[in-house]
Amino acid sequence: MIEFADPRSAPGAPLVDYRDLVDPGRLRRPVGLHSNGYFDAAAFLAHLGAALGFETRAYVKGKFSEISTRLDEQKLNELAQECGALVLAYGHCGSCTSATVRDGVAAARLGVPVVVCVTEYFAEEARHIAEAAGVKNLPLALLPHPMAGTGDAALAHTAKAVAPAVRALLEQGAP
Asked: Shortest CA distance to 21 belongs to which of 139, 168, 167, 163?
């Protein structure tokens, strides 16, 4: 017998708009660039950080085996204390998209401005996961698919291309 799990929040759980959760004044502190550990995510974020024009701090979730796991509460709280905003990267497959989006939702619930970078192929899934976790209008920066394995020049080109949108999402919130 196959059993299907329903990813939606419990009936009656409130759906909160991202814009009601964040404090735009947090951008006075450094922006955390958090790689989920997927191939080339840290390299992409390094290029993005250089293009953003903000003071940044780089973080990596851990081992490759952790790309599909959520940040633990203690680490998320540390990031929220150290950083004025977070850019999380990237959603490049189903399970890493889910974990990265849920990390973004958790950060937003702490009032941290956040942008989650996902490839266009997983954009619809990312939006669904955010709403299933109770947050609508979570800011997403859409990247071409695939990103991993495309080479440093392609990563740099994409980072430079999406930097203005990421900056706007951090400064103004959800679209």
From this structure: 139
